[in-house]
Design a protein that fits this description.
single chain; 553 residues; alpha/beta; 3 domains; 7-stranded mixed beta sheet; 22 strands
């Protein structure tokens, strides 16, 4: 039987542009194995695309179901629980109210693939909250007994956070709330003061969290600033104009600003306090539930799990034997979570997968890169060139992990500036992340980095040993940490990247690489290999690895 997980209920009240529902997608699983994940933005080239209702029929036809049984598992949201394709030929309607529950609700399915002939299929609707939690399963196989399952994001179906107890056989909801974490999460993505300082509008909220994380690292969360922000409820009480916010800061801190300047240390401290509040609130709430339940493992998902400093704090707390988050922890993982949970309910486990599930078809696509090409790549990177990589199947989620990456030396600030500010056209304050082999991580980072379940997905952060700072001068944060991706030397899915990293280290003493996503501003990550050369030319890369060869753009 083919299981089709989908997240595609559209927010029709805001026109064509992705706003409150975004990152639609579809996932195909069979017999506990993921066949393919399609993040809609990668298919259409439109960032955060929310038009699955328009594209699902062609995606279903392209994948094919092999003539067997098909079941749909749709994910709801706060805008509704029924999915209807734009052509009206597929309807998935729950037979009852969808509540915050791990048990999917049976659904009526009306499916006419050709518009005339009815195709039999079964259906269910899973709550948004648990679909986030279940998105971890394809990367762990099953939850360990005595585990805490957590989702935190801006808004699911009936909550912004949910906490679950897994006893080894079933999930029990401990608590869910709109309000308890709402201010902290809104500080992460829509705080008006952050928007004013960094120069963003409300509709750009999806791009703010990563920028706040990077910028906040330049400041200090002082008690005086934090206390003042808390007294004002972080200015979340109403819409504030930039002028009103600037006047409030002038009145409290005695500055003579006419407008916000992101290079001013006070602006950095204001954002550091807002980021610090998020870290403390989220960590405290999760650790409170750990203390109450005695949970030994944490499985954590939702957009909030992209906040790397918070993940690092949870991991460093020592409260859990292991902390798990999926590479597609934001809404891009909801369709996969829905399919994986149904397959898990049938089997009690699913296969453990790599993050490289963005396939053109049902079969994994591995491309071997010849030794002489690896040697040429190594030589060019060592010489300071910036190369794009498009090999095999694409990674799922928002982080490039080596198959759709831009790579460059990490030890030179001028190379980081070229990559981040000139090629990617990112803001000056945004750091970039490195990738390194596990054998290098064992020398450069604390021991927990090589054991971390977050490290393969670039979701953790660790303090760099002082004697290694020069080797990572372009990527180390102001606080001495790096958001490193650690690649296992024996990972077959990372054979090319591991070979490049090993030879760079052994031959040139280059300890890792900058690893950032292969895309330009406002674009989704590169998907199709046939687009790689054109993208490399547009971005101004020095070369691109694809189909086992290295090309000059």
């Amino acid at each position: 039987m083919l299981t089709v997980g989908l997240y595609g209920i559209r927010d029709t009240t805001h026109g064509q542009h992705p706003t409150y529902t975004h990152d639609h997608g579809v996932a195909f699983m069979r017999e506990g194995r993921v066949e393919r994940v399609v993040e809609l933005e990668r298919h259409t080239g439109r960032r955060h695309d929310n038009r699955l209702d328009r594209y699902l029929p062609e995606l279903l036809a392209a994948h094919g179901e092999g003539g067997g049984e098909v079941r749909f598992v749709s994910v709801n949201s706060f805008v509704g629980a029924a999915f209807v394709s734009a052509d009206g030929n597929l309807r998935i309607e729950p037979e009852g109210r969808v509540t915050i529950d791990a048990q999917p609700v049976p659904a009526r399915v009306h499916w006419f693939p050709d518009g005339i002939t009815k195709r039999e299929a079964t259906g269910e609707v899973l709550c948004h909250e648990f679909a986030h939690v279940a998105s971890v399963l394809p990367f762990v196989g099953r939850f360990e007994a005595r585990s805490l399952l957590v989702h935190i994001d801006g808004g699911a179906s009936d909550s912004a956070c949910s906490f679950w107890w897994w006893d080894g056989a079933s999930a029990r909801l401990l608590d869910a709330s709109w309000d308890r974490m709402k201010d902290a999460v809104n500080n992460f993505n829509v705080n008006p003061l952050v928007r004013a300082i960094l120069g963003f509008e409300t509709h750009e909220h999806l791009s703010i969290p990563g920028k706040l994380m990077g910028y906040a690292g330049l400041g200090t969360s002082s008690p005086a600033v934090r206390s003042w922000l808390e007294e004002r409820r972080f200015f979340l009480d109403r819409p504030w104009s930039h002028e009103e916010l600037c006047e409030a800061v002038r009145a409290r801190f005695g500055v003579r600003w006419e407008r916000f300047d992101a290079r001013d240390p006070l602006c950095m401290d204001l954002c550091a306090a807002i980021q610090g509040h998020f870290e403390e609130r989220v960590s405290a709430e999760i650790l409170r539930w750990q203390a109450e339940t005695g949970a030994t493992h944490l499985y954590y998902a939702g957009g909030a799990a992209l906040n790397v400093p918070t993940n690092a704090r949870l991991e460093a707390s020592g409260a859990f034997r292991a902390v798990h988050a999926p590479p597609c922890t934001n809404d891009s993982g909801l369709a996969l979570g829905a399919a994986a949970w149904r397959e898990f309910l049938d089997r009690g486990e699913v296969e453990v997968h790599s993050p490289f599930l963005g396939r053109a078809g049902a079969t994994a696509r591995r491309v071997a890169v010849p030794d002489d090409v690896v040697d040429e790549v190594v030589a060019r990177l060592a010489a300071g060139e910036v190369l794009g990589v498009c090999v095999g199947d694409a990674e799922v989620g928002p982080r490039a992990l080596g198959h759709r990456s831009i790579l460059a030396r990490p030890d030179r600030v001028e190379i980081r500036v070229r990559v981040s500010e000139e090629i990617k056209r990112r803001e000056w304050y945004r750091p970039v992340a490195p990738v390194m082999l596990d054998e290098v991580a064992a020398l450069a980072l604390p021991p927990e980095a090589t054991r971390s379940n977050l490290a393969p997905y670039m979701l953790g952060a660790w303090r760099l040993r002082p004697e290694w700072r020069a080797r990572f001068a372009g990527v180390v944060h102001a606080d001495g940490t790096i958001r490193a991706q650690v690649v296992r030397s024996d990972d077959p899915e990372q054979a090319f990247l591991a070979a490049v990293l090993r030879r760079l280290w052994q031959r040139h003493g280059v300890a890792g690489l900058i690893n950032t996503s292969f895309n330009g501003p406002g674009e989704p990550m590169l998907n199709r290999p046939e687009d790689a050369l054109a993208s490399a030319r547009r971005l101004g890369l020095d070369g691109v690895v694809m189909d086992g060869s290295l090309y000059r753009p």
